[in-house]
């Protein structure tokens, strides 16, 4: 397993927050930029960011970083459409990856070191086709899917994300503990815990 592509679905509107949560600044840096810098600092081969809602603003924040940006025109139809858009982009390159690593941009405490650990575990356990992150009793993203799952990722049903595959292949899934992956920006309380916050 030589080539690992990171896919970051960053297309949703987060309408409950009243603003684009990926442009919220945590410790002086927009959330989306923080996530992409961590992805780029990992040992992954490349990083693809899927935009949708306010794509121009996301692009502006990331314009100087060496990542690929692709727009999901159907972003309002659900997370799985962004996963499909990202995977189609990755598979359209010169060389297909051996695995894709799905990273959500609002898990603000996920580091390059954790992403590298997932990749290392996947390489050391060839019999495991998925390596996911466990926090509590949950195995979820960031999660690495080897090539055998690409067709199913492309065919995910509306409103599901990748979770059905984690459940379907639980017997061959390797879970790596990281309690920090539990922290995201799903509530304003989470934002307040992360330090000084500013808004676009």
* Fourth-tier CATH superfamily name: Spore Coat Polysaccharide Biosynthesis Protein SpsA, Chain A
Q: What order do the helices and strands follow?
A: EEEHEHEHEHEEHHEHE
**Number of helices, counting only DSSP H or I runs of 4 residues or more:** 7
Helix content: 25-40%
Radius of gyration (Å):
16 Å
Give the class from helix and strand content and strand pairing: alpha/beta
Number of domains: 1
Using the 3D structure, state the CATH architecture: Alpha-Beta Complex
Proportion of β residues?
A: 15-25%
Q: Mean of residue pLDDT? A: 89
Gross morphology is globular
Distance between the termini: 40 Å
Strand order of the largest sheet: 5-4-1-6-8-7-9
CATH fold naming: Spore Coat Polysaccharide Biosynthesis Protein SpsA, Chain A
Largest sheet: 7 strands, mixed
Stretches where pLDDT is under 50 for at least 5 consecutive residues are none
Give the number of DSSP strands.
10
Summary keywords:
globular, Spore Coat Polysaccharide Biosynthesis Protein SpsA, Chain A, 7-stranded mixed β-sheet, 10 strands, 200 residues, alpha/beta, single chain
